[in-house]
Amino acid sequence: MPQRTVPVSSRLGDVRYEIRGALSRRARELEAEGRQIVRLNIGNPGLFGFTVPSHLRETVSTHLDRSEAYCHQQGLQGARQAIAAREAARGAVAAHADNVFIGNGVSELIDLTLRALLNSGEEVLLPSPDYPLWSAATVLNGGRARYYSCPASRGHQPDPDEIEALITPRTRALVLINPNNPTGAVYPRELLQALVQVAERHRLLLLSDEIYDGILYDDAEFHPLAPLAGDTPCITYSGLSKMHRACGYRVGWISLSGTPAKFGEFRAALDLLSSLRLCANVPTQWAVEPALTGPDTTSELVRDGGRLHAARRAVIDGVARSEYLDVVAPQGALYAFPSIRTQYFDGFDDEDFALELLESENVLIVPGTGFNIRERNHFRLTLLPQPAEIDDVFMRIDRCLGRIASRSTSARHVA
Question: In Å, what is the CA distance from 352 to each residue of 215, 301, 356, 406, 413?
Answer without folding.
Answer: 32, 34, 6, 15, 22
